[in-house]
Amino acid sequence: VLALSGAVLGVALVDWHWPFLACAALAVGVGLLAGAVNGAIIVGVTVPPFIVTLGMMEMARGAAYLVTGSQTKYLGAAVEGLSRPVGGTVLSAAFLLAMLVIALTQILLSRSVLGRWMFATGANETATRFSGIDPRPVKLAAYALTGAAAGLGAVFNASRLGASDPNAGTGLELSAIPAAV
After folding, report:
1. What span, in angstroms and rounded, lies between the C-alpha atoms of 151 and 34?
2. How distant is the alpha carbon of residue 139 from its chain centre?
3. Which of 15, 19, 34 is nearest to 151 (CA)?
4. CA distance 33 to 154
5. Are 168 and 2 spatial neighbours (Cβ–Cβ below 8 Å)?
6. What is the pLDDT of residues 80-120, one digit of tens each?
7. Cα–Cα dist 134/7, whole Å
8. How far is 134 from 41, CA to CA, in rounded Å?
9. Quick one: pLDDT at residue 88?
């Protein structure tokens, strides 16, 4: 999903000549859509999440190759500003945005009803269902938000590399799976 979102970012920026913020929003939207598709299949068809997300990984990788024509899109200075240090510090805008996303996610999880429902669903889906909460829309929201985070990660990755590579993120699943477990 990171590679597909980054590919769409690169095509929109280089081929369609969209402004960077619109391209970034499109990349996050593509990630959100991929996550929502994952969630819809997991919730609607009740296929095991590992199988669905593994299938999405391969579909998104293939779509990234199709979108870019299997070519790396060099983005240049349009995206590199996001990875440069801000205001004479060593902190980049991407780092500061990532910290903002972490803070907002923490607020969502600890201070909202949806966040509490996500914790409950993740801890014990059966108990959540028995307590009167339908876990299906909660799971769908969790997968959609995760996809959006992958799209944002694609923006950060493209900024760091100065390019949109359809091979981006290869091997990251080997870090994500143990982290989730």
Report:
1. 9
2. 15
3. 34
4. 14
5. yes
6. 888 888 888 899 999 999 999 999 999 999 999 999 999 99
7. 35
8. 16
9. 83
Closest CA to 12 of 82, 56, 94, 78: 78
* pLDDT value of position 80: 84
Please determine, for residue 146, whether its predicted confidence score (pLDDT) is greater than 80: yes
Q: Could you read off the pLDDT of 16-72 as tens digits, one per residue?
A: 999 999 999 999 999 999 999 999 999 999 899 999 999 999 999 999 999 999 999
Cβ proximity of 149 and 101 under 8 Å: yes
For residues 3 and 86, give the distance between their C-alpha atoms in angstroms, rounded to a whole number.
27
Return all residues near 7 (Cβ < 8 A) that are at least 6 apart: 63, 64, 67, 68, 73, 164, 166
Which DSSP letter does residue 96 get? H
**Paired strand residues for 163:** 74
**Amino acid at the residue 74:** Y
Under a CB-based contact definition with an 8 Å cutoff, are residues 90 and 31 in contact?
no
Residue whose tokens read 């009803």: 113
